[in-house]
Amino acid sequence: MSDATLSPAATAAPAPQTRSKSGGFWSQLWRQFRAHKGGVAGLIVFIFILLAVFIGPYIHTIDPNKIDIKAKNQGPSLLHPFGTDNLGKDMLAQVLAGGQISLAVGMTAMALALLVGTLVGVLSGYSRKLDGPLMRMTDLFLALPLLPLLLVIIMLFRDTLRAAFGPETGIFILIVFVIGITSWMHTARIVRGDVLAIKSQEFILAAKSSGMREYRIILKHILPNVMSSIMVSATLGIATAIITESALSFLGLGFPPDFPTWGRLLFDGANFLQINPSRVLWPGLAISLTVLSVNYIGDAIRDALDPKAVKH
Q1: How many whole angstroms separate alpha carbon 233 and alpha carbon 253?
Q2: Can you tell me the distance from the alpha carbon of 133 to that of 26, in angstroms, rounded to the nearest whole number?
Q3: Which of 60, 231, 252, 264 has the maximum number of C-beta atoms within 10 A of its C-beta?
Q4: Who contacts 272 (Cβ-Cβ below 8 Å, separation ≥6)?
Q5: pLDDT given at position 52
Q6: Each residue's pLDDT tens digit, 40-98
Q7: Can you tell me the distance from the alpha carbon of 110 to that of 88, in angstroms, rounded to the nearest whole number?
């Protein structure tokens, strides 16, 4: 009697404690993320860069395009913490302004690449008829030499978009489109592999047998289960887009000279490397820290979403 009486209590008591401790999906993801020291450090650095880039101009109020010939090629000082360029422009103001453009390009291009990659990956993994053509198209894009392709597209459409939308907006649209449309292939392959594994599960077969429409199965059952791969691709996509934009700007094919980005600042400062090395140091350091922090965040998210890494 005593054993029979105590056994239900023993099994029922731990249940609410386990639920309260485990919490929801996002709280569990955050606990696993915090265990990754590199990811936490990367998140702190990335948040600091975002705050500095978007709030810094309200504190350091010097116009990044203000020319002061008397103060040209100066080193760091209280008035100009990062020094000045050959025209007397404040380097800190230019780095902050350039960061806004570089981060905006990276995030927007990442969103476009994720949209295309997720769409292709889901359709390819879910539909046998579309799998062959979509994967061959993906292989074709992977086989293309991306940098020469980027250069050709920009040279062909740069003047047209500048005339239609203005020099800054036109180049922004062109660079975001070019980077996004050439960066979706890896996301598509990863998502396709996840969809192939998920669609053979019993709950998908049950949804099909119940008469649920195909698009509802994709929206309610497929997409939520591939979100982990999409989140990891998002973080890595930002880093790739920032590097690509910096490379294009460094080659002189990005934004206009009076519209600074980190890559453009590197391009402009390369000729003054021996006279004023800080002109290359600060934008290069900004690019390196941003890309490194985003990569650490991506690694931490990947480890946090790995079922084998879950700690009980």
Answers
A1: 26
A2: 36
A3: 264
A4: 73, 85, 86, 279
A5: 93
A6: 999 999 999 999 999 999 998 888 888 888 888 888 888 888 988 888 889 999 999 98
A7: 35
- 61 by Cβ neighbours in 10 Å (0-12 / 13-18 / 19+) ranks as exposed
Task: Find where tokens 């606990």 sit.
Answer: 31
Q: Which two three-digit tokens encode residue 4?
A: 């029979």
The CA radius of gyration of the chain, in Å to the nearest whole number, is 25
Residue ranges of the chain with per-residue pLDDT less than 70: 1-25, 306-312
